[in-house]
Amino acid sequence: EQQLNAALSSTRAKQWRVCLLLTESLCKLPWLDVLDQALDAGVDCVQLREKDLEASELLDRAATVVERCHQANSTAIINDRPDIAFASGADGVHLGQTDLPVAAVRKLVGHQLLVGVSTSNLDQARAAKAAGADYVGVGPMFPTTTKHKPVLAGPAYLREYLADERVQRMPHLAIGGITPDNLPKLMDAGVQGIAVSSVICAAEQPGKVALRLLQEWD
Ligand code: TZP
Ligand code: MG
User: What lines the ligand 1 site, CB under 6 Å?
Assistant: First the structure.
């Protein structure tokens, strides 16, 4: 029963406050220190986003992230790779618009993984909802160099998303160029969750930045 409860709770999408996208190449400190500092600060979710690791190394990395996240009662998501997510015991997988479609991932893993989808307009958000996504990324909110060729959606898209009756029940993570300084603009729009990478990864004191972001929810 305990196992069943664990499985059920980990496969229910929450409205996270702050999700760290962890990418080693962006980190100033060792990636494990960044992860631990962010978890100590209280981030609700970590998404491992590594585009260049070979499968075996990615699986090892994912297993470490999952272990640390679960010790800290935080959610672990793997970018792009349902296979790695499943094999590492992660809670979910995050898909971009050109990754495997949600329906294909459901065929592979059913509802044993949360499935998140990146969206940059309402059509994509509605399609993600119709396909049964558990949560959506909404962005990019601000200019960013972390993503290749981002097309700016801006806070206007976040406002549209939050006002749309057909998608409003899906948990969301606003993403793209978010910092403690521009976060109030998103709070004004009613944001409930954000995903950030470089502002935490590249910091000299990642835990402090994570705390500053989380403070907006106090
Ligand atoms: N998707 C939209 S913007 C983005 C991704 C993966 C990059 C987010 O990183 P940062 O460093 O917080 O702008
Ligand atoms: Mg992707």
Answer: 21, 118, 139-140, 144, 146-147, 150, 175-178, 196-199
* Single-letter amino acid code for the residue at 123: D
Q: Region of 50 please: left (phi>0), alpha (psi -120 to 50) or beta.
A: beta
Rounded mean pLDDT, 67-95? 98
The amino acid that residue 95 corresponds to is L
Q: Is 49 annotated for ligand binding?
A: yes
Q: Ligand 1 center to residue 186 CA distance, Å?
A: 15
Mean of pLDDT values over 91-104: 98
Q: What percentage of the chain has pLDDT greater than the value 90?
A: 88
Query: Who contacts 106 (Cβ-Cβ below 8 Å, separation ≥6)?
Result: 115, 132
Answer for the pair 102, 117: CB distance below 8 angstroms, yes or no. Answer: yes
Q: What is the ipTM of this complex?
A: 0.99
Please determine, for residue 24, whether its predicted confidence score (pLDDT) is greater than 70.
yes
Q: First-to-last CA distance in the chain?
A: 34
173-212-147 Cα angle (round to 5): 40
By alpha-carbon position, which residue is closest to atom 6 of ligand 1? 147
